[in-house]
Amino acid sequence: MNESLSEIESRALRELVAVSGDEALEAWRVAHLGRRSPLTLLLRGLAALPLDERKSAGAAANQLKQRLESAFEARKEELAHSLTEALAADRIDVTLPGPPLPAGRLHPTTQTLRDVLDCFVSMGFQVVEGPEVEWDRYNFEALRIPRDHPARDMWDTLWIDYERDGERPMLLRTHTSPMQVRVMEQTEPPIRVVVPGRCYRYEATDPTHEWMMVQVEGLAVDEGISLSDLKGTLTDFAHRIFGPERRTAFRCDYFPFVEPGMELRIDCFLCGGEGCRTCSRSGWIEILGAGMVHPEILESVGYDPERYTGFAFGMGIERIAMLKHGVGDLRLFFENDVRFLEQFG
Ligand code: 2U9
Beta partners for 217? Predict the structure, then answer.
């Protein structure tokens, strides 16, 4: 009988050490102290023993029962304690700051676009935007570029096979100029607008050409506007974007929508005018085209060209960004390579 008690005890205590968790602990209690446990069955069987044996065996079995009960309580306490500790160790401090997220930034051409627009806005120009899909009439004809005229060769065009109310063809605008025509059709002078936006050309790409570019064009129409206004406005612009130390020069150029037409150049900031690869050995870098709005265009939108005059200009934002940041290939701006883009703070 005593042997069997010690077996019960050693098995129960061995199993108790392995118990973890409330469910396992309860299962242990049922197995070793429950109504059908070996110990309880043994206690029930004592009644069949002779009195003197029953006394000593009963006392031993009851002592074992007490030991198992206290072992059970002790283990229960121990498990509760270790759970509290585990929870405490595992606690998340919600007041700690989160892991830092990498900060985004504006695309370099967007930064340049904003700088350019800010400059003109500070001079009193208003920013307006127009459709990227245009009618031939606005993109070419209203700008003195008639059908079948050789001047059209200056703009390789992406055409759209679409007709509305007999009007055709449509195209992806090759410059933002059609929007200036729309503004003039809807507004009386004085006008001072800058028009930013994507323009498209049917061109093979190379380091200085892409089939899509962002342009900013500007238009000022009023009584008494002269070439001096054009020169003053654009010289100031060049100094604000490229630095007050830059020398500037205007040179004749041809665009069908202006007369006279010209380009604005700054002295090469890489070679200081000596001549290098960036300035094609000329010492000068072209930054934009400009001119006095052709009187026929003013007339065709209903303005009196004897009363009103105006100047206009246009530039490619990627070109300005390339020059500002010393980027040698315009295509880098469109590749979305973060290693390139993150250089521009
Ligand atoms: C109207 C009247 C006149 C806009 C002008 C230029 C000169 C010009 C090019 C520079 C490089 C475009 O990005 S580029 O390819 N533009 O040189 N643009 S004058 O003249 C206008 C526009 C609209 C009604």
Answer: 195, 314
DSSP string, 299-319: HHTT--TTTEEEEEEEEEHHH
pTM: 0.74
- Regarding whether 250 and 184 lie in a shared domain, the answer is yes
| Degrees, nearest 5: CA angle 22-23-27 | 120
Active site includes 312? Answer: yes
| Mean pLDDT on 141-163 | 92
Ligand 1, residue 301: give the atom nearest the CA.
Answer: 24
Q: Is 301 a catalytic residue?
A: no
Is the separation of the CB atoms in 258 and 337 below 8 Å? no
pLDDT in tens, 239-259: 999 999 999 999 999 999 999
Which of 29, 58, 89 terminates a domain? The answer is 89
Range of the domain at 240: 109-341
Closest residue by Cα to atom 11, ligand 1, is: 315
Q: Which of 138, 136, 4, 123 is nearest to 61 (CA)?
A: 4
